[in-house]
Amino acid sequence: QLLGQWFYIAGATRYPPHLEEMKAVKYEAFSFFPVNHEDELNVTGFMRLNETCLERNSKVHVFLQNSTLMHVDENQVVSVAKMIQSDKDLLILNHTNIDFPSLSLSARTPNVSKEHLEEFKAHLHCLGFTEEEVLYTS
């Protein structure tokens, strides 16, 4: 279900380094591609940070038994996230490898339905975030 293209829509975090990057993200799209191991995916991402465009290639290890993704870049664990997903076109990730609450929303299209946005906001509320703390891409 993860294979293919995704668009980063919004996120919220209280982790200072991630918060600064999230404020600068104007656009982000990424794609998951299979590799030889069924529990590993290649990821190609394109993002615009303020006025700078970047391409990133990395890997994601998938742990199906607990719905967890481990993002690895240059053999370093970048993040670990629990998938919270009720729809095949929606990817809500609760980033768990830091001691700060952090949640992100991605979707198959650059726009999400009101229902999907409400679901994301419900998860944000459970983690103690307010609407003012949510950072959206443009």
TrEMBL record:
Localization per record: Secreted
Entry-linked Pfam families: ApoM
Sorted UniProt keywords: Glycoprotein, Secreted, Signal
Gene Ontology CC terms: extracellular space
Main location: secreted
Family matches, as PANTHER family: ALPHA-1-ACID GLYCOPROTEIN, ALPHA-1-ACID GLYCOPROTEIN 1
Name the record gives this protein: Alpha-1-acid glycoprotein
Source organism (scientific name): Acanthisitta chloris (rifleman)
